[in-house]
Amino acid sequence: MHRPGRLTGTPVxxxxxxxxFQLVLVRLGSVVCATRHHxxxxxxxxxxxxxxxSDCVENAYCLSQETCQCxxxxxxxxxxxxxxCLAIATKLGDPCIIDMQCQVTFAAQAECRDGVCGCSEAxxxxxxxxxxxxxxxxxxxxxxxxxxxxxxxxxxxxxxTCPFQHHPNENGTRCIRSSILGxxxxxxxxxxxxxxxxYDVCRCRVDHVISGDxxxxxxxxNTVGEPxxxxxxxxxxxxxxxCREGSCACETNYHQRGPVCMKSVELSGSCTSHQQCVTRTxxxxxxxxxxxxxxxxxxxxxxxxxxxxEDSLDCVRYSENGAxxxxxxxxxxxxxxxxxxxxxxxRERFCFKT
Length: 354
What we know:
- The chain is α+β, with helices and mostly antiparallel strands.
- Among the domains are: 220-256, no CATH class; 264-326, no CATH class.
- It has four helices and 25 strands.
- It has helices at residues 15-37, 100-106, 231-235, 323-353, and strands at 45-49, 60-63, 67-70, 74-78, 83-87, 110-113, 116-119, 123-126, 129-132, 154-156, 159-161, 166-168, 175-177, 196-199, 201-204, 208-210, 217-219, 241-244, 247-250, 254-257, 260-263, 293-296, 299-302, 306-308, 315-317.
- It has a three-stranded antiparallel beta sheet, with no helix packed on it. Strands 4-5 form a two-stranded antiparallel ribbon.
- It is rod-shaped, with a radius of gyration of 48 Å.
- The N and C termini lie far apart (164 Å).
């Protein structure tokens, strides 16, 4: 029987405790691996028999008058022919002959270059050892792998990541503050909204307008018919236009003339330009030239070679309503009448002379 108030069974760990425990294991694992990797070089025995220190190689002494052993701070480096005791580096820049002198203290990324210890070109010095350098977006084992100029960075789920409200530059070498539209900024790279630019604050670039929700920069339409998401894209450059079914179109009581929208004026209405004049069959047009209707003396009127239909709502060519046939018949009657009059004139003149 359990005592009252005492918990039994499997303990339940909070998420925060589990995260800390995981980080400790990762750090401990990297240290243990590094120690195991170099354990064999910590051997100080040269295996040479001796009676006196003078029987041993440099930087070694005779232990118990039996075998030679490297001094404290040295390790044995042996090959088939001989053994030597080399000093373990304690700081970067210490003299060295082989990489192992550096790697015992500074881990596998350290090397002996030009006779002194340092981190390899693909690594950096952090917290007393050399860590392989990783950029933003690259795979990492610990946060110390992530080495970013002028900014902290973290190893999150095995990937080097910028801190909150920061983003990497193009090559992943720096973390830059993330600024949205309206935020203060110092360089264009800080503005994270697509098609935005830094003008002391992040704003939309030229030829773009801010969306209604203030979160996007939308491409401005230059002419009627171009694609759009919102009215502001059309109205920036084309007056009296709106976004309709995904493309810019003219508002009600306006029509397209070339790239712009003009106020619609019917026949006999007041106008200032022929582009305002419309008829039942002539309204929207990609052309801005005079066609069937024109503005004459401030009034919309049918253009040359066009006449008004009976309902006065449209303009048609003469040949389109039989006007050319009537005109030809009138001319023919006029000619025939001349031929009828001429003989009488000749007779009258002839009789007068006789």
